[in-house]
Amino acid sequence: MNRLKLILAAASMLGASVAHADFAAGLEAYNKQDYAKALREWQPLAVKGMATAQHNVGYMYDRGEGVLEDDAEAAKWYQLSADQGYANAQVNLGYLYRRGDGVTQDLAQAVRLFRLAAAQDLAPAQFNLGVMYAQGEGVAQDTVEQIKWYRRAGEQGHRRAQFTLAKMYDNGEGTPEDDAEAVNWYRLAAEQGHREAQKTLGFMYSQGEGVARDRAEQAKWYRMAAEQGDASAQMLLGIMYRNGQGVLEDYVEGVKWIRMAAKQGHVEAQNVLSLIYDNGKGVGQNYLEALKWSRMAAEQGHSGALFNLGRIYETGKGVPINLVLAHMWFNLTTATGFDASEARARATTQMTDAQILEAQKLAKTCLKQQYRDCAR
Fold first, then answer.
1. CB 55 within 8 A of CB 88
2. Of residues 255, 298, 249, 250, the one with CA closest to residue 273
3. Which of 1.10.150.20, 1.25.40.10, 3.40.50.300, 3.90.1640.30 would CATH assign to domain 26-120?
4. Three-state DSSP class for 356?
5. What pLDDT is attached to residue 282?
6. pTM as predicted
7. Measured between alpha carbons, how far is 65 from 219 in angstroms, rounded to an integer?
8. Which of 64, 121, 65 is closest to 90 using CA atoms?
9. Could you tell me the residue ranges of all domains in the chain?
10. From CA 346, how far away is CA 314, in angstroms rounded?
């Protein structure tokens, strides 16, 4: 009898070893993006009841990797794995129940699943449980619970939880405002590459909020966010180079960063780039480029750019002098709340009554078209 038990135990261990090898082979294939092979390795293990394999098969159906995307099939495999207590499956199944993908939407069930995974210290589950308390989805809205779960996730390094918690302390949302605590959480998220946290941390250094004001630190964090493509950070870093704050004054470097932001549609960067081309600092003076960037900013309703266009047509920089268009742009500027009435009056003194009426008509049309395709 003892001999039989030993044989059965040895066979069980051998089976487990083979299953482990198959699972590892699937993982290697998946990491190489050979999804078909990964599925071939994992599917039999999932059928035999391996929770991790069930989760991974569900994940592939969830993402449409190696198979057609199928939320219902994903939910089936997630459920089998979740029923065995596998935390990753619980949280991913929770996502499906929250959105109603592949299952009937059930916010209470999503909360239950997030809570099960959170109890196993799975940070994404803790964060999402915090979100449910924040939104009042499946549970009563509860800021104390929200902060508790964000903190637990943040303490495990979940950067979205860290950033969200930082914003709450920064703005005094559901907790007393605490700039030092906000900086602490922003820094944790920023050090993990969260670009919004990097930019915000730079701003905290610029204002001396929660930390001593430090231009060099400000520039450092703006640069990190800018290098990740954050347009606002690119713009702010460019201005720091233009002004020589926290970095060596460098007009060319400043223009580089401002141009990056402008190309992403950052309206303030577009307006500033127009002014740079107008004065030629860091670039060759180019009135046509100034006109181009002013027009792009104006199409987003930027009052400064609207005014600049008026000045361009009034003075004839890169274009023939056209007082009708100058009046139109000054009129539009004033309508935004930026007072250009003096400039408009200056143009009016040199115009006929017919020209004034034409300019007013053009302004109405331009405003109706939301500053796009306006008269040139």
1. yes
2. 255
3. 1.25.40.10
4. helix
5. 86
6. 0.86
7. 41
8. 121
9. 26-120
10. 10
